[in-house]
Write a structure and sequence with these properties.
single chain, 182 residues, mainly alpha, 7 helices, 83% helix
Length: 182
């Protein structure tokens, strides 16, 4: 199992470009669909936890999945698998990129990659919205949250704390009332 964890996260780390959020579809395919290590709901919960923690998202999510499957050694193996390919690729780029920075076709390639990365991040965002049961009645929450962070510069930690408090209050006071009336 440890070898399979390392191999799976190494593949994800080596072949996913655009950062941790762009990895979400590939991680989901491997962990939920192919290996059946987690249910869709467990995966969405781990994404929420990984996003809430400081650090690199890809390392966080791989660590949590590894821990969920094989405790401490699983966490180490999965995190190493996710980090090692990226580390080696960045090391190679750092060694040679300065020679190619001013080559027009290299610059053109990077200009072409940027919009694709946006799409790679947008797709898991919409998939997460569906999994988190974001509907027309509650879509205002992520929209207002994004605007508060983007336009007003509100600290994301405050947003997370406010969302946790709001969820707690909803669960304690509003939801029981809905169940009694429903």
């Amino acid at each position: 199992m440890h070898y399979q964890l390392f191999k799976t996260f190494s593949k994800i780390g080596a072949f996913t470009f655009g950062g941790g959020y762009a990895m979400i579809p590939m991680i989901e395919t491997e962990v939920v669909d192919n290996h059946h290590w987690l249910s869709k709901e467990e995966f969405v919960d781990l994404i929420a936890v990984a996003q809430s923690c400081p650090g690199v998202f890809a390392i966080n999510i791989s660590t949590f999945i590894g821990f969920r499957l094989r405790r401490h050694t699983g966490a180490i193996v999965a995190a190493a698998g996710a980090a090692l390919p990226s580390f080696l690729i960045i090391l190679l780029i750092a060694l040679f990129f300065h020679r190619f920075m001013d080559v027009p076709w290299v610059a053109a390639m990077f200009n072409g990659i940027r919009p694709a990365v946006v799409a790679l991040i947008a797709v898991p965002t919409f998939n997460l919205a569906k999994s988190a049961h974001i509907t027309l009645s509650n879509c205002w929450i992520p929209i207002v949250t994004a605007l508060l962070i983007w336009l007003l510069g509100v600290n994301p930690i405050l947003i997370i704390l406010a969302a946790a408090l709001g969820g707690y209050l909803y669960g304690q006071f509003i939801k029981p009332t809905e169940n009694e009336n429903g």
